[in-house]
């Protein structure tokens, strides 16, 4: 069986092997019109992970800005080979900092406007992480439990929900907790943005990864 470290390095190697392609070049330019498309009212996303598949249903009526941003990032390969770098056991699982640090830095402050809370933060809903008002960028998390009592007050605004594979989300490696990146508010993500997956595979070899994220029919 391949070790977690070996798998992490393989994931990064696969990504590095395509860094010269047009998709990577596009991701270096957040201002490109390719990232400004309006998403379908409802669409599906399959996250193929190192533990199995997680299928999301994204609803634009819940969060139009959030759904549009996620649609454009997924369809252009932004989340491919990204790590689930922050998992608070039984609470949330966070991802959304790209494997390639140059892409991560290009998007770090590409904020989208806030959306109003339309549905509660029930188990399986998916939200953007943020620190300041109108400060959502690319980092998202899956609620591993009902977090409505705390998250609705912020508010963290769900834009999607897990419709298949919640058991996979529950099984993602959570042994590092806040150490392998922390949240946006903790101010401890600079190393991850500076080095990307190379930093994670060197220091946190047991993390799970998104091998690919794909738009599918709802």
Question: Would you give an account of this structure?
Answer:
This protein is an alpha+beta fold and 218 residues long. The chain has one domain (4-216): Cyclophilin-like (Cyclophilin). 28% of the residues lie in helices and 21% in strands. It has eight helices and eight strands, in the order ααββαββαββαβαααβ. It has helices at residues 4-16, 22-27, 64-75, 101-107, 148-151, 166-171, 190-195, 197-203; strands at residues 42-49, 52-59, 86-88, 92-95, 125-128, 140-143, 158-164, 210-216. The chain has an eight-stranded antiparallel sheet. Helix 1 runs antiparallel to helix 8. The radius of gyration is 16 Å and the shape is globular.
CATH 2nd-level architecture: Beta Barrel
Kindly state the mean pLDDT as a whole number? 91
Q: What is the ordering of alpha helices and beta strands?
A: HHEEHEEHEEHEHHHE
Q: Low-confidence stretches at least 5 residues in length (pLDDT < 50)?
A: 1-5, 14-20
- Range of helix content: 25-40%
CATH fold call: Cyclophilin
Q: Helix/strand-derived class?
A: alpha+beta
Whole-angstrom Rg:
16 Å
Content of β-strand: 15-25%
Quickly name the level 1 CATH class: Mainly Beta
**How many extended strands?**
8
């Amino acid at each position: 069986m391949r070790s977690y470290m070996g798998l992490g390095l393989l994931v990064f190697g696969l990504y590095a092997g395509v860094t010269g392609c047009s998709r990577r070049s596009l991701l270096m330019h957040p201002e490109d019109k390719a990232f400004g498309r309006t998403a379908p009212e409802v669409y599906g996303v399959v996250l193929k992970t190192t533990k199995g598949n997680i299928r999301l249903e994204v609803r634009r009526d819940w969060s139009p800005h959030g759904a549009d941003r996620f649609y454009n990032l997924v369809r252009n390969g932004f989340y491919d080979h990204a790590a689930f770098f922050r998992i608070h056991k039984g609470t949330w699982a966070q991802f959304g900092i790209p494997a390639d640090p140059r892409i991560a830095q290009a998007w770090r402050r590409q904020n989208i406007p806030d959306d109003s809370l339309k549905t509660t933060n029930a188990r399986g809903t998916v939200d953007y992480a943020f620190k300041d008002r109108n400060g959502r960028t690319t980092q998202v998390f899956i609620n591993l439990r009902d977090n409505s009592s705390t998250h609705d007050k912020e508010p963290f605004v769900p834009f999607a929900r897990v419709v298949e594979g919640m058991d996979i989300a529950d099984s993602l490696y959570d042994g590092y907790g806040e150490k392998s990146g922390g949240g946006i508010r903790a101010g401890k993500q600079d190393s991850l943005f500076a080095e990307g997956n190379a930093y994670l595979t060197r220091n946190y070899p047991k993390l799970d990864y998104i091998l690919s994220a794909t738009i599918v029919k709802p």
